[in-house]
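Hello forum,

I keep getting stuck at the same step: I have a sequence, I want structure tokens, and every attempt I make locally crashes halfway through. Rather than fight my setup again tonight, could one of you with a working pipeline run this one for me? It's a single chain of 177 residues.
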Amino acid sequence: MYTVEFQKRGLPHIHCLVWLAARNADFDPIIVDGFISAEIPDVLTDPIGYALVDEFMIHGPCEDDNKSCPCMKKGSCSKHFPKSFQDETMLDKFGFTVYKRRNDGRYVVKNGLKLDNKNVVPYNMKLLKKYQAHINVEWCNKSNMIKYVFKYVTKGSDRTKVYFETTDKASDKTNPA
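Reply #2:
Ran it on my machine without issues. Output:
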């Protein structure tokens, strides 16, 4: 399911939900980490990934380093950056995903400041390399899916186009509706 909106600068912006076929519906950090990263890649082993994360997936600087950043509302970042370091991906007490953001010493430089994993917007490396654009990817579980659908997929213009597609025909036969 998706919707396309046009931001103030006239650029298209998409909000999309993708359902993954899974044998087990329980949260599994290993599966999440296989799709989503919130860390800066190693420049020596993945120089292209490092350059793309540097260019498209770093938030800020904001907060005390740039109080005039557009994300700043009432003296703090409205996107809740910088995040905290996190050794492993987990769910918080409200059911929201907290991504792995290790304190591994990696950083990029923006406006003369070193920004580390605390400033990385979650992404999928395959999508980032294919489209070379800012693509924020989030794990959406049962509790926050409804909020996402109503907040993002239906916001914007007076029209919404919704498209559902089953991509694995074999799963239809094994899971009759």
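Helices lie at 29-35, 47-56, 125-131, 142-153, 169-174. If your local run keeps crashing, start a new thread with the error log.
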